[in-house]
Amino acid sequence: MKILFMCTANSCRSVLSEALFNHLAPAGLHAVSSGSFPSGQLNARALATLEKADVSIEGLYSKGSEVFADSPPDIVITVCDKAAGETCPVYFGPAIKSHWGLADPSDVQGSEADIQAAFEVTVAIIEQRFSALFALNIEGLSAEEQKAALDNIGGLYD
Asked: For residue range 29-50, what is the model confidence (pLDDT) as tens digits?
């Protein structure tokens, strides 16, 4: 089962989600990420945060959804922050769609410690949501049950 994490720039939140998912996921589950307007570059602090947590950053890059045209995902999860008024990308296709909003840690202003803390909080939220997801038998659920479970997880840890 392939899960696509989408955001606007595909430089921070969706990339954190992709890397953490692939680091933690049980066999048979795989994540990719993309952006509706990919920036073409990854957030350096996001990469450093992943490396600090011993999560591989190999193969990560900022990309649009067109790269998945021949291999569409089963599930699409948008991770934009609704509270900031950010427009989430729309993925058209048969995939189950859910929204797991995350504040953009790269928008945090303040000291280095404040900014790093925002990245670490984001990673912790992502990991908590993944723990809830991995506790499910997602492949054993109907499409409607998958959607409901994913939406419920997206409401956790806001």
From this structure: 999 999 888 999 999 999 999 9
The residues facing 2 across adjacent strands are: 30
Q: Is the pLDDT of residue 134 over 90?
A: yes
In total, how many domains does the chain have? 1
> β-pairing, 2-7 with 96-99?
unpaired
| Cα separation, 126 vs 13, whole angstroms | 9
- Location of structure tokens 């840690």: 105
Q: What is the DSSP string of the chain?
A: -EEEEEESSSSSHHHHHHHHHHHHPPTT-EEEEEESS--SS--HHHHHHHHHTT---TT----BGGGGTTS--SEEEE---GGGTPPPP---SSSEEEE-----GGG--S-HHHHHHHHHHHHHHHHHHHHHHHTS-GGGS-HHHHHHHHHHHHTTT-
Q: Which tokens sit at 49?
A: 């945060």
Q: Provide the token pair at 73.
A: 């995902």
> Treating both helix axes as pointing N-terminal to C-terminal, what angle do 112-134 and 13-24 enclose, rounded to 10 degrees?
50
CATH number at residue 141: 3.40.50.2300
Which structural domain range is residue 7 located in? Answer: 2-154
